Amino acid sequence: MKMIDLGKSGLLAPDVALGCMRLAELSANDAVKVVMAAFENGINFFEHADIYGVDGASEELFGKTIVELGIKRDDLLLQTKCGIEKDPNGGGIIGYNFEKAYIINCVEQSLKRLQTDYIDVLALHRPDTLMEPDEVAAAFDALFTSGKVRFFGVSNQNPGQMALLQKSTSHKLIVNQLQLSLVHTGMIDSGFNVNTTNDGGCVRDGGVLEYCRLNDVTIQAWSPFIRDFPASVFIDDPDFPELNAGLIKIAEKYGVTRDAVVVAWILRHPAKIQVVIGSMNPQRIANIAKASDFRLTHQEWYELYMSAGNNIP
Is the pTM of this model over 0.90? Predict the structure, then answer.
């Protein structure tokens, strides 16, 4: 497993991370198998959020699993997110909240569920348009000074939102979690279509790919296997015959599965992206981990990009 320096902060992490959104759907026994599969294949970075599972159930099950396995905290890298506020009466999302007290309370609860004294990376989950940057900075300071959080980041934020927050805090934002896959390539498309009237030339994210590269922010790619509408896995999807044929050809060349090729396509980008996979299948985790062991050629990257229905002018 290749290691990358997240945000050039000195925090070394594998280039493939395991997202734990669906961990709460598993039995305790199956959760053990999933975590062990990740460890055995070089994945020791586990990505969480306080809203994964009912009342943080995914964090809670993960904490119990680590205790059961006897894994040392120093051998783990834990990231969690907060900021999405849910109806306490069991309803859905009621808004985003980056108030100082809310952030600190969320972290305190995550620490209890994860059964740890500190979080390696805390990311703000989605943007809160009512954010007071100085208040967020104060929350970061309190969490860092108390030793409860080592590093900070964001998710699904554009360059302006990141710059606004970074202006107020001395803590470098080291990650930005963004959706990216072969069939969700907006941050790449706009770069190909500069000075054109093509639809791909629409810059919907403020040039976040280039911003993150210029400012040494590691992009964490989520949903690497998912098409948007309908939300489903694009492997074996009849809507993508050319893409699947290309994945099969390259998978056979390197002796890996198509899952690994999909992730390798993202890893091939020079931005040094960390891919967050969400599989709860131990064998699939092992298959995907092999993406870190080979490198697509320049030509193979473009072939897959275009076979997914993406065009270049």
Answer: yes
